[in-house]
Amino acid sequence: MKPARLSTPGRLLFWALGLAAIVAAVWWASTQGRAQPAADQTRQTDAERPVPVVVAPAVTSDGGMIVEAVGTGLALRSASLQPAVAGEVARVRFKAGDRVRAGQPLLELVDRRQRLNLKLAAAKVEQARRLLARYDATAGTGAVPGSVIDAARSALQTAEVEQSLAAEALAERTVRAPFDGVVGLAQVDPGDRIAPDDVITVIDDRRRLRLAFDLPEPYLPHVRTGHPVLASSAALGDTVIEGRVQQLDNRLDPATRSLRVRAELPNENDLLRPGMSFTVRLNLPGGMQLQVPDLALQWAREGGHVWVVRDGKAQQVPVQLLRRREGVVLIDGELRAGEPVVVEGVQRLRPGRPVRIVEAAP
After folding, report:
1. Which pTM value belongs to this model?
2. Is 253 found in the same domain as 185?
3. 3-state SS of the chain?
4. Together in a domain, 157 and 113
5. Could you tell me if residue 79 is inside a domain?
6. Per mean pLDDT, which range of 42-46, 57-61, 156-160 is the poorest?
7. Which of 194, 217, 251 is the last residue of a domain?
8. Is 129 among the domain residues?
9. Digit-coded pLDDT (tens) for 331-356
10. What pLDDT was estimated at residue 195?
């Protein structure tokens, strides 16, 4: 069979569709050829366009550090009062919180027997004194041998010693304040039988308060006697008290590698109490270091770095972190004071990329 032939209108339609397909292919190829250089040109323009950044100047700052520790308040002087002898409590002559003077009687034991012994010793002294006076009146007459006079003189001395012992025994029945201070709660009541190992009360001299705290080993070279300290306590609210280091222990604790330090705090208003907990701050000296905002410090595989704007372009400067403070860091690197350091906008930065400063960080 012979193949079917298209009619004249069909052939014309077929050739028209083929020609349209050829024209479309040529147009698409030419369009792609022009679009590729345009895209390259767009990417090149973006790479050269300045990146908006926020900068802050690098400044020099004292490289000193603030060391914090927890301290405990101690009385300037403190003593637990105990009786010298056993006995029955006759009278308690203080109450908690009383301010007492050195030598003031605080407690008395029953002392009837001791008073009688003192009277007896006084009578013996008087008798021996009168006898020696009569013997001395006969001196030079030979009426009384010299050996008898010497014996009478020795008897007087013995009686005087016995009188002193009786007076001492009577004095031991009274407990007195060893120094000026404030007494605590009484641990005994009248009628109690107490012994020398029983505590009557505690007396504290709190005109100034000692502050005991531990200082870690790395900071020892920076602290000396007289170094200022700042102390605060929850009981005092926002009040900060300045004191000074008074004593440094002679050795470190091998378990904690720290040194026991004692400072003194003024206590004119009597607001501080022994046993209070304090937060202790010491400002330790150091050299001048570069300081930048903590947001400027970036980290990569090689270590820390900051972005610096030099001649309108970003440069990456390796730095070493020395110390962190609130909102800032102390660093060491090839950086000069006053140079603008990028704080925000570092994500799009590359070495040599132009930058545009839109705001200076405070």
Report:
1. 0.61
2. no
3. CCCCCCCHHHHHHHHHHHHHHHHHHHHHHHHHHHHHHHHHHHHHHHHHCCEEEEEEECEEEECCEEEEEEEEEEEEEEEEECCCCCEEEEEECCCCCCEECCCCEEEEECCHHHHHHHHHHHHHHHHHHHHHHHHHHCCCCCCCCHHHHHHHHHHHHHHHHHHHHHHHHHHCCEEECCCCEEECCCCCCCCCEECCCCCCEEEEEEEEEEEEEEEEHHHHHHCCCCCEEEEECHHHCCCEEEEEEEEEEEEEECCCCEEEEEEEEECCCCCCCCCCEEEEEEEECCCEEEEEEHHHCEEECCEEEEEEEECCEEEEEEEEEEEEECCEEEEEECCCCCCEEEEECHHHCCCCCEEEEEEECC
4. yes
5. no
6. 42-46
7. 194
8. yes
9. 888 888 889 999 998 888 889 999 98
10. 96
